[in-house]
Amino acid sequence: MHIQLKDIVSKSILTPAKGAIDNFTHSLNPYMGCVFGCTYCYVRQLPLSLFREQEWGSWIDIKSNAAELLKKDMIKAKKKGPVTIFMSSSTDPYQPIEVKTELTRSLLEVMLEEQPDFLHIQTRSPLVKRDIDLFKKFGNKIRISMTIETDKEEVRKAFSPTALPIAARLAALKEITDTGIMTQATIASLLPCSRDFPKKLKHIAKRITIDDFWMGDGSGGKRTGKLGVEKIYQQMGLEKWYNPTAYKVVLRMIQEELQDSEVELMVSKSGFSPYQK
Ligand code: SF4
Known about the structure:
Helices cover 34% and strands 17% of the residues. The chain has 12 helices and 11 strands.
């Protein structure tokens, strides 16, 4: 697919955090648009996508003045109280264009000069491991959270065909965890998975969070319903998984696997907070 790239100049970069991430004070999005184009992405229902002619997943606006703005916004925000940041809520900060732009990396450099009280990085891209050197400098003020919604590649391909393979995400997360940085494997939103999924997650992160469309989409599942993802479950013969109680089965499997383990287990919004053990 041809991706339309555009450099834009933004007016501000730190946005007050709302909805599922309102445990944070701010969200930070280096880009608008996301080439991973997940079928269930709630951003598809937001004005930034609805009012574009191009399909979600086919365009990226690069906030070229983001680093400059962030420095100013951080100084301003810190004067008002603690600053806890969720990066990113409506894009992936490590989508492939980041290899070239290093925009997210430049924001980390700014945040090392003007440190937030806490920074949560949410991505589904193994590229995140490139910035381990910077993450280490944040000490216990940072958490790297990798989205791993399933362990089945055929399911990943059906729901999120342009996102990167699960094995590469597992390996990248383990590599970051092994450096001592606080990490999280985020099953969000849960997709059909195998019985071995909990075992695959057990040794790769310090914490596991599970969420689903009904708890996590901010509308009890209605927003996801409008995106028509149920059809994909039907095409795959997996309709029993499109159910607000399905997560409980996987949660129980993870609880069993984590007995005698120090890995924390969180459900839905509790996994998206600046809380740090
Ligand atoms: S990676 Fe995140 S922001 Fe990007 S399309 Fe998927 S769900 Fe949306």
